[in-house]
Amino acid sequence: MNVIFLSIVVKWKKEKFVLKKGVKDMMKNRIFLSPPHLSGNEQKYINEAFETNWVAPLGPNIDAFEKEIANYVGANEAVAVSSGTAAIHLALCLLDVKKGDTVFCSSLTFIASANPIIYQGAEPVFIDSEPETWNMSPQALERAFQDGSHENKLPKAVIVVNLYGQSAKMDEIMSICSRYNVPIIEDAAESFGGTYKGKASGTLGLFGIYSFNGNKIITTSGGGMIISNDQEAMNKARFLATQARDPAPYYQHSNIGFNYRMSNVLAGIGRGQLEVLPKRVAERRRIFEQYYKELANLPGIYFMAELQNTQSNRWLTALTINEKEAGVTAGEVLVALTKENIEARPVWKPLHLQPIFDGLRYYPHEKNESVSDRLFQQGLCLPSGSNMAFNDQMRVIKCIKESINSHMCKRELQA
Ligand SMILES: *Cc1c(COP(=O)(O)O)cnc(C)c1O
């Protein structure tokens, strides 16, 4: 009788233990890479739209959001559109990019930077990164221009990307482009809120574009913006984004346009988000600082630098892992993080390595050294959401430390 009772108790305790352990594992909450972070003010603007029945594209939130962004970055004019991709597409249309043209574009970026070149039937030429900012290499750009000049085929535009919040070497790039008299489209989708020599990121080219996709530093759930000091060009952007309707009393069209405008409801989300942009930049920078403090002295870990006289918004904390020094690859650390229910990402796969762009021209940083290839092999983006809890960030840090230490131990044992 007692024995049976005892065995039941033991079994019950065992099950309770297993159950507890199971619950504990399940309770390890998922840490996301860059989730939306609402301010609480979005609802106010959305409600206004609903109460006044401006549940349409265009309306007071759109007008206000455009003005607020233009003011914030110090540009003459901003046009709100349905995505960052749409904004790049409009910029190319404004520059009359068409079949037979080429456009120079950063290689180390999200494919959305280059897809609109293809939409226009033109051909991208990819430019490598330089090692300091990970962004467009001025010396590779110069070589591409020299070749273009010899072949009597200069590009119609240069798309410069500011990766993970860090500005490219804009002075050097702008000086080359102005020498060849080719306009710049600054893809600031990831760097909104950052600065370059005191100027807002995105305002250095002829056109700048921002993205308010759900994973960006501020979001409208989905949306984008094109900005410029060229008032006339921005009027044309509005015209093209609303099906290119001629000023006539009936529906008349002399151009092909797009349905690219942002909705008045989503612009309301954007207004509530823009109010806290400086706070979001400070929070993301603080998250970077914490990673840096805890991880920078580990062997083989190198953080993406911040160029002098620029302020990155640190949209994502990005680093490289040198396998020889760390004893572990970026890919292996990524697997370790994934096992811990932590969402990290490899650095963008360069566009010149994408199957869809196979055979297109590419200019590496040095004739026989591609920097973006190395950054892709060694790079890792860590969870950087402005609403990530301190303890969650410490969980990420612990996991990275453990995965490097365990490999160091293994190596020492083998030695
Ligand atoms: C997100 C992103 C885009 C595209 O923005 P969407 O709003 O998603 O269309 C373009 N370029 C870069 C570098 C991006 O990160």
Automatic annotation (TrEMBL):
Its cofactor is pyridoxal 5'-phosphate. The modification N6-(pyridoxal phosphate)lysine is found at residue 216. Keywords: Aminotransferase, Pyridoxal phosphate, Transferase. It holds the Pfam family DegT_DnrJ_EryC1. The keyword Transferase applies. It comes from the Bacteria. One of its GO terms (molecular function) is transaminase activity. CDD domains: AHBA_syn. The keyword Transferase applies. One of its GO terms (biological process) is polysaccharide biosynthetic process. The active site is at residue 216. Belongs to the DegT/DnrJ/EryC1 family. This is DegT/DnrJ/EryC1/StrS aminotransferase. It comes from Neobacillus massiliamazoniensis. The lineage of its organism: Bacteria, Bacillati, Bacillota, Bacilli, Bacillales.
